[in-house]
């Protein structure tokens, strides 16, 4: 078996490792303490620099806040709630406007309430408002007002 070739850097580290003083105290070391000191020196001279170099190569993960929740009720993109309104008995949905692609229909509103039967859309600033308005479609949907 042939010995492995070593780079100049590894040879220099090995030289430091073999010639560096092992203990700060002048007293003689037992074999167990001697090995412990050699291991600590090896970690300082070899392992820690390699870890530092490895960490510099990796790109840090950047998270800018929590991951957005993806809504998809009943297989519909952006749907938070889909139910029948008690007053009319018709299907009404609450959607995240961005995820459902309703931005053009409701403008800058983040949440939308949709009458699924009459395709009427109303925009809301908060999710709570959208959920509240879903229970009374006869107040905002022209088709549901006659029912």
Describe the structure.
The chain has about 150 residues and is of the alpha+beta class. It folds into two domains: about 10-55, no CATH class; about 70-145, no CATH class. The chain has helices at about 10-20, 30-55, 95-100, 105, 125-135, 140-145, and strands at about 70-75, 75, 80-85, 90-95, 110-115, 120-125. It has a four-stranded antiparallel sheet. Strands 1-2 form a two-stranded antiparallel sheet. β5 (about 110-115) and β6 form a beta hairpin. The longest helix has 27 residues, at about 30-55.
Low-confidence stretches: none
Number of strands: 6
Distance between the termini: 91 Å
Task: Evaluate the radius of gyration.
Answer: 34 Å
Helix/strand/pairing category = alpha+beta
Continuous helix count: 6
**Arithmetic mean pLDDT:** 79
Set out the fold topology:
Elements: H1 8-19, H2 31-57, E1 72-73, E2 76-77, E3 79-84, E4 91-96, H3 97-100, H4 103-106, E5 111-115, E6 120-124, H5 127-134, H6 142-145
Antiparallel strand pairs: 1-2, 3-4, 4-5, 5-6
List keywords for this structure.
alpha+beta, four-stranded antiparallel β-sheet, 147 residues, two-stranded antiparallel sheet
Short description:
With 147 residues, the chain is of the alpha+beta class. The chain is built from six helices and six strands. The protein starts with 7 loop residues before the first helix and ends with a helix.
